Structure formats: structure tokens, C-alpha cells
Amino acid sequence: MDLENQARIKELAEKYGKDDLIVVLGGAEAEASGLAAETVATGDPTFAGPLSGVSLGLKAYHMFELKDQVDSEVYEEQVGMMEMVLNVDEIIEEVKTYRK
Amino acid sequence: MNYPVVKGAAYALIQANGMLFYQGTTQTQERRKNGVSEHLEKLPDHLRSFEEAVSYAPNQVYIGNLNPDELKGIPRPWFQHPVPDAQRDGRFGEIMPEDEFIGLMKIVDAFDLVILEESFQVRVKEKLAVHPFLKGIKDFEKINKNPGNQADIYKLTASDSAQPIYFDGQLVGCVKKAHEFDESLSHHVMFENLVGKASAVFALKLLMAKTGLNPEEVDYIIECSEEACGDMNQRGGGNFAKAIGEMCGCLNATGSDTRSFCAGPAHALVEAAALTQSGIYKNVVVLAGGASAKLGMNSKDHIKKGLPALEDMLGAFAIHIGENDGVSPVIRTDAIGRHKIGSGASPQAVMTAIVADPLDKIGYRITDIDRYAPEMQNPEITEPAGAGDVPLANYKMIGALGVKRGEIVRADLLKAVKSFGMPGFAPTQGHVPSGVPFIGYARKMIMEDNITRAMIVGKGSLFLGRLTNLFDGVSLIIEKNTGVIDTGFNKEEVRGMIAEALRDLAKSLASPAKR
What we know:
Strand content of chain A: 5-15%
Radius of gyration of chain A: 14 Å
Number of strands of chain A: 2
Oligomer: heterodimer
Strand order of the largest sheet of chain A: 1-2
CATH topology of chain B: Peroxisomal Thiolase, Chain A, domain 1
Number of helices of chain A: 5
Largest sheet of chain A: 2 strands, parallel
CATH class of chain B: Alpha Beta
Strand content of chain B: 15-25%
Strand order of the largest sheet of chain B: 2-1-9-8-6-7
Number of domains of chain A: 1
């Protein structure tokens, strides 16, 4: 996960607390999305960024999982094409793993 | 209308294991962080030999010896299926070993910053002296002058006054800082800029050697890498383009640098097309050298997965855009795609702006383009790093856009992708994969009537510069030349105009004068 994003998420978690905070991912691939979910949950597994050894315990959801929470027109406009192209089930399955 | 044409393209690769290990940012960060690094200990075992790099199928595609479609027939992983009898010389370019390139860095160094150890310098000079077109390069004699000894070179690098140059695990030279305090002229920056300059010089010399372009006929050079040269008062002042042209005998050329991350080359091609179509210049070269910082960028993932360190290649290219010659494929300047500031950032908005909007301008459908060349990164490099198959993702997006526009039936999406797509074969050198690696083949395939048109798509991640979150993208269509050159004088049109004027005159004589 991008080191700058790690720093921003860490800062937001410190500012707003972990209880009312979720991370929304837009990764195009299962492994990378899972890695991001893992990073915000238990820490940076690559030990490269600010979340190395920092377990924020945040829950991450991929945008595909939040389809019902979003205006359908907006979803179609912003995500519709990628939903057609990417391996949605594989991505969701991988991201879910880190919320258990 | 006379469209500008693609008159030629050349491609250079340089295998650079020493630079990967000592100058690649993944490795320099690791070295800074950890005194003892497992990654740095394991890395040498994963470096490829020059022969392995030459016989690597994607590299053979890049220099023009295998076409991208042939790559589809070679089983993955490609590094386990070397191309038999592979040559360093290619139809469009060449693969150079690191020692020769280090020698070239010294030749192109105008400020005596590169010092090479004496015996190494002699060896490299012997190799470059027999290189078919580098032996005659301007300032070749520099490779005979001012050698260093290993103790002095070591002292300079150990005292942070110079960036080390390693070949085959040995310290063979260094690049000194160009100013005592100026960070823009530090040894680190000078090293990267000299790598960029030397590799672009190599690509331009290749373009001249492979296409017969006369250096004195070049009017303008646009350099579109991702480096910046300047000093502390103007960090990106420039100008790589003229520095590169100077080394290649382009005495009548001027030039400038264009930047937009990985989309830079596509912007530069549009600029070159406009300059030639307007008649301001007849011959424009768009070129860029390679980036040592990106060598081994994903090597941690590659090593973890037991792969060779595949990002060991510096990439460079040079493309000649000229006035319509009635033969070479044209650039459709009436259908340039661009991601506007107000286009929006969703993948759909980006693809619509770059791919669909320009097609609409000239009444084409998605399927009217025979080949799309978006970011052509080699998937064997990006997949282990979690970035997926970048060209394939782009092709699927283009296909999905076709489905949304009703031009492709949803069930045929993958069939369409197969028809207009190609496997990625370019090294992950940022600006290098972005559409341009296919231009040589596009020209050849169009001229041999294998395809009619191709779209080159450049995309850039501007957020990396931390000034904007905007995305960037530019596209252009290259199409078969109709063979008709507009001379600006159309006999039939003039005849028609005279006839009309005579008719009007006759009418006015026949009718009574109005008062």
C-alpha cells in the first residue's frame, strides 16, 4: 500500500478514532486489495510504511461491496464499467478475509 | 488536409544490473533503512546475465525482432522460454550491455563528472570502437582521456562526493557532484540525468542508423522523459533535448522538454504532429531516455516469488514525425484524445475522454481501431507485484466502453479484447511503456497492409507529484496514408470557381442594371 496513503489513514484514525471509521478500497486486483485491507487492519506486512507494526484494526470494504449503499446512477457512472471488467467475486472474497 | 506522418521509430534497451543494485530506489531506500538487508543479500542471486536479458522474449519484441502477436505464442513465464539464437541487434533497435553504456555516459558527459577506472576504460573503449555507429559519435575521444584509479574513485564515493558506478560487482567508476551544495546538481541527480541523456543519445543514433534520417535535417527535438535538469534556482530548467541533439550532429535543430509523467510521450507526439502539420518544422524527433531510479522497483516481490530481477533494463526510444510523404502512416490530428481537467477521474470518464471522444469526432467506432496500444507494461513484471496485467486491464476497459456504447455485444467482449489487444512487452520505465513501444510495429503493420489503423494511448499519474489529484491521458490515431498529398492547389476547384464567376458575370450583363 502506498506509503503516503498509510500515513493519511494513520492520521485519520488518530484524529477520529477507530469506531466510526472504515476504509473504502478501489483496487483493481484481489491480491493488492487484500494487501491494503491487511495493512489497515493489522499493519503493513511489507514493513515499508508508517503502518509497519501498527495494528489500527480498521475494517476495509471494496467499493464493489458497497453497491447497495450508493445511488445506483452514480454507481453506474463511476464504477459500472470496472464492475464489468474486473474479477469482482475474487476481490470481495480476498478483502473480506481481513475483516474476520 | 495534409496530416503529419510517422517516418520512423527506434528503440533501445540497456541491461544495467549495477545500476539496479546501487541506484534503483527500492534498493537505495533499503540500504538507507537497514544496515543488513535480507533483500540486498538475496538480490545478486536473482540478477540475469546479458545473454539472458537478450534472449528474453519481451526484450526481443521491444527492439523489433519478434512482433507482439508472436509473444502470444510463447508460453509464460517468458524468462523460462528464451528465444533461440536471439541477437542484441534488432529491426528497430538494440540491446546494449552495461559496460558499453557506462562508456557512453562518459562520452556524453560535457562537464567531466564521469570518472572511469583506467583498465575498465580501456576495455570499454575497445568495445565501443567497433560499435557500428557509436564509434563515430561526437566526442568519442573522451573515452581515451582522464582515467581514474580505484583508490581515488573509492575515496570520492565514500566521502559522498560521487555516485558509484559498478559493473559485474566491481567499482569501475563514479559520477561526481556538479556543485558543492546545490541538491539539483548532486551526484545522485547528475547520475540519473546522465543516464537519461546517454540512453536517449543511443536511441537517436539508432533512429538515424536504422531509418537513414540525416541529423542535419532534424528541425526540432522534443524530449519527454520523467527527469528534470537544472540547478537550485530552476530545478527543471532544461534542456535535455538540445543536449541530446548536440551529441548526434543535429546542428540545425533546436528543442525542448515536455513532461506529464507516463503520458509525456503521447503529449510530445501531439506537439510534434502539430509542429509538422502547421509547417513550422519539417522533421521533429520525439525521444526519451531511461530511468535508473526505476530499475528493480518491484524486485522485492520478484525475489519473494522466486523470479529473476526482471526490471534490469533501461528503456529509450526515438520517433521521427515528418511532413506528409504520401507513404508513411498519418497521425489523425483531427481526432486527438485528451483527458480534460473537467473530465472526471473515474476509469469510465477517463476512457471516454481518451478513447471514445476522439473516435466520435471522426465517426469511428471502438471496433474500427485494429490495434490499441495503451500502457504496454510487461505483465510478467507487474503481476507478481500485485498490479495485474496492465495492458489487458486497459483492453477490457476499452471493450467495456464498447459494450456501454452498444458497439460490442457483451458476450463478445473478450473476443474484441483478443482482436485489438496485444501482450505487454515494455520495461516498467514509467514513460517508456505508455503506447510508444508499439509505434514501430504499427508503422510496419500498416505499411504492410496487416492493419489499417492503431490508437496510441498515454496515461499519467499526476498525483505522484503531489500538486494535483488529477489524472492525465492523451491518445492519437495512426492510420494508413491515402497516398494523396494536398499541394494546396486543386485544379478542379479553381476551374469550378472561374466557371461560377463567368456565369455570374454573364447573368449581370444579361439582366438590366439595378438602380
